[in-house]
Amino acid sequence: MDTRAFANRAWLFVVPVMIVVLFSSLTPMMTVVNYSFQDTMGQNNFFWNGVGWFQNLLDPTTAVGQRFQGSLLRNLLFSAVVLAIEVPLGIAVSLCIPKSGWRVGAALVLIALPLLIPYNVVGVIWQLFSRTDIGLLGVGLTAAGVPFNVTQDAASAWFVIIVMDVWHWTSMLALLCYAGLKAIPDAYYQAARIDGANRWSVFRNIELPKLRKVLVIGMLLRFMGSFMIYTEPFTVTGGGPGEATSFLSIDLVKMALGQVDLGNAAAYSLVYNLITLTVCWVFFTYTTHADQKDAA
Amino acid sequence: MSSSSVLSAPLGAASAAAAPTARRPSGTTVGIALYVLFLFVPIYWLVNVSFKTNTDILSGLSLWPQHPTLDNYRRIFVDPEWHASFVNSILYVGINTIVSVAVALPAAYAFSRYRFVGDKPLFFWLLSNLMAPPAVYAMPFFNLYSATGLFDSIWAVALAHCLFNVPLAVWILEGFISGVPREIDETAAIDGYSFPRFFVKIFLPLIANGIGVAAFFCFMFSWVEQLLATTLTTVDAKPIAGMMSRAYSAAGLDWGLLAAAGVLTMIPGAIVIWFVRNHIAKGFALGRV
C-alpha cells in the first residue's frame, strides 16, 4: 500500500531536473526527428521525404538496411555473449569477496578500479595487451601456436573485445551482488545450518532469490552498456576487420559524423533509440510490478 | 525484518563459528586472488610500457622495463597542452557532478515522498535518458552546441553529460532518501522547522552517504565517457582523450606517451574510490538492497 501523500506541488521540486534534461534530450532529439523526415540537396535546402528513410533502413535489401541489420545482429550477439559470461562470473566473484577485516575494503577498491578508467584508455590497454609484437597476450597466444591477429582475423578481434568487456564490467555485477549478499540477515544462514543444508542449497535457496532484484538491475545496465558500446571496441579494432566488430554505435557514428548522411543517420538514430526505450520500458514495468508484489 | 532479529538473538553466539569463511578460507581467497590478477595483468602491462623508451618497447617483449625511464611522464608534465587537457577534463567532470547532484536532490525527494500527477511516466522518461546511446546524440549535440555558441567549451561537455548523470543521480538519491523514515520530516515540521531549513539542516546530513555515492557515480560516468567529450570539443576545451589521439600519428604510435597518459588518467579514479570504499557496494546497488 502506497502511503505517500498526494501533492501536486511536488512538481516544483522536479522543475530543475526537467529543465536540464529537456535541454539535453528533447532539443537534440527534435533535430534528429526533423532530419529523419526530410532530404536535402545541399545549401541547407530541405524538403519533405516522409517515411522514406525509415523504409530504406528497415528493408534489408537496400545497402543501408543491410548495414543496419548486420550491426544489429552483431550487437545482439555481443550483448548475449558478454551477459552470459559476466553474470555468472560476477556472482562467483561476489561470493569470493572477503567477509570481514581490512581485506574487504582492499578487495572492493581493487576490483572497482577498471570501472573508473576512461573508455578510450580501456581500449588502449587492450590494444597494447593484444599486440602480437609488444603485448603480453598477443605474444603469449602466438607463442602457444594460436593463430591470433586482431587486425586481420575476425575471431581474434571478437575474442579480444569480449575479454575486454568481461575485464571492464564484471566488477560492476560483482559489486551489485556483494551488496545484495550483505543485505541477507545472518539468521537465514543459521536456519540453513540447523537444517543441515549444504553450500549449494544455501546458494540456490537463500542467496540466489535474494539477489534477484540487484541482478535485474545489473543485467539491464549491462545489456544497455553493451548495446551502446562505442569507444572501447572502436579503439581496439576500429570496427574491423572489415565490418566484423562494427556495432550499432560504431556504425551510426560513422554514418552521422563520418559520411554526414543526415537522413539515414537520423532514421537509424530513432530506430536505435526506440529499441533501447522498449527494453527500458519492459524493465520498468517488470520492476514496478515486482515491487508491488513484494509489498503485498 | 523483526522476525529475523528475534530469531537471531538466541543464536547470536553461534554465528561467529558458523561463518562459512571460517571453515574453508582458501577457496574464496584463491578465487578473489585470481580475479584480481586477471584485472591487474593488463594494467601492469600499461604501467610497464609507460616506463620504457620507445626503442625499448619496439625492440621486443620484456616483463619489466630494461632501462626504466620517466621520460614519457616528463614529456606530459612539461607540455602546457597536456596540462590544459587534464584541467579541462577535471573541470567539466566537476561542474557536471555539482550540477547533477544539485538539481537531482529536490527531484529525488519529491519522487520518494509524494505522489503527483504524472510521477511514474516522468520517472520512466528520466530513466530512459540514462539508457539512451550517446552515439545517437553525437550529431544533434554538435548542432545544438554550435547553435548556442557553447561548442568547444567545458560547459558543452558538462551539460551534455547531464543527459545521463542527472537521471542517474535522481535514481540513486531516491533509493537512499526512501531509506530515511518519513516520521523525521513530520517531526521536524511539528517542531517548527520551515521546509528549507529542515532540508538543509536536518535532511541533507541524514543522506550524506547517498549524496557522496551519487557524486561518485556522476564523477565516474563523466570521467570515463569519451565519445561526447571528444565530439563537442576541438581546441580550447580538448579533454585528455583528445590529446591522447594525437599519439596516433602518421609516424606510428607513440606507445610510451600513450601509456604514460593512460596511467595518469587512472589516478583520479583510484583516489575517488578510496574515499567511498565503505559505501561503494551499496552505491552500486543504487541504494536498493
UniProtKB/TrEMBL annotation, chain A:
Membrane topology: Multi-pass membrane protein
GO biological process entries: transmembrane transport
Principal location: membrane
Spans through the membrane: 12-37, 76-97, 104-129, 157-181, 214-231, 265-284
CDD domains assigned to the protein according to its UniProt record, in alphabetical order: TM_PBP2
Subcellular localization: Cell membrane
Domain ABC transmembrane type-1: 72-283
One annotated Gene Ontology cellular component of this protein: plasma membrane
Keywords assigned: Membrane, Transmembrane, Transmembrane helix, Transport
Stated family: Belongs to the binding-protein-dependent transport system permease family.
PANTHER family according to UniProt: GLUCOSE IMPORT SYSTEM PERMEASE PROTEIN GLCT, TREHALOSE TRANSPORT SYSTEM PERMEASE PROTEIN SUGA
Protein name as annotated: Sugar ABC transporter permease
The species this protein was found in: Lichenibacterium ramalinae
Lineage of the organism: Bacteria, Pseudomonadati, Pseudomonadota, Alphaproteobacteria, Hyphomicrobiales
From TrEMBL, chain B:
Family the UniProt entry places it in: Belongs to the binding-protein-dependent transport system permease family.
One Pfam match: BPD_transp_1
Keyword Transmembrane helix in annotation: yes
Residues of the signal peptide: 1-18
Gene Ontology biological process terms, A to Z: transmembrane transport
PROSITE patterns the record matches: ABC_TM1
UniProt xrefs under InterPro entries: BP-dep_ABC_trans_perm, MetI-like, MetI-like_sf
CDD domains: TM_PBP2 (cd06261)
Alphabetical UniProt keywords: Cell membrane, Membrane, Signal, Transmembrane, Transmembrane helix, Transport
Domain ABC transmembrane type-1: 86-276
Topology with respect to the bilayer: Multi-pass membrane protein
Subcellular location as annotated: Cell membrane
Annotated TM spans: 28-47, 122-142, 154-177, 198-224, 255-276
Superkingdom, natural source: Bacteria
Major subcellular site: membrane
Any one GO cellular component localisation term in the record: plasma membrane
Name of this protein: Carbohydrate ABC transporter permease
